[in-house]
Amino acid sequence: MQFSITAALTLALAGTSLAAPASPSNPLSEIATRSGEYQTAGIVGYFGDTSCANGQTDASSADGECRELPGKSMKIWWLAKGCGVVLLTDKQCHSGATFRNELQSCINTENYLSWEFYCYP
User: Fold this and answer.
1) I need a labelling partner for 42 at 20 to 30 A (CA). Which of 7, 35, 36, 54 fits?
2) How far apart, in whole angstroms, are the C-alpha atoms of residue 19 and residue 60?
3) Which of these, 50, 52, 84, 61, lies nearest to 3 by C-alpha position?
4) Phi-psi region of 18 (alpha: psi -120 to 50; beta: other; left: phi over 0)
5) What b/e string do you get for 56-93 counting C-beta neighbours within 10 Å, with b at 16 or more?
6) Could you tell me the pLDDT band of residue 25, with boundaries at 50, 70 and 90?
7) Under a CB-based contact definition with an 8 Å cutoff, are residues 47 and 72 in contact?
8) Is this model's pTM higher than 0.90 or not?
């Protein structure tokens, strides 16, 4: 789903906190049992370069939904309470997990092929 970041933030912030929680020790261990808690677990932006400056496309999804990772970098614009982004090295969201939850930071994604939101208690 593509939309403007202003519209997405307005809708998403209507009743949700901006908390960026601490990282869990092993996010993949619970993804299958925790998925589906949020219809919109967060909003990210993909970029065509590694400096998050060109070719921006914004997206959102439910937690636990495996998504292909386009572009060369990503910014996390917003996260639902208790959520973060898991970057993975395969297209099926099974291996090479790296958990990120820093808002507004440019994340180089050249070594990753997929991503999903992970939300924990």
Assistant:
1) 54
2) 17
3) 61
4) alpha
5) eebbbbbbbebbebebbbbbbbbbbebbbbbbbeeeeb
6) low
7) yes
8) no
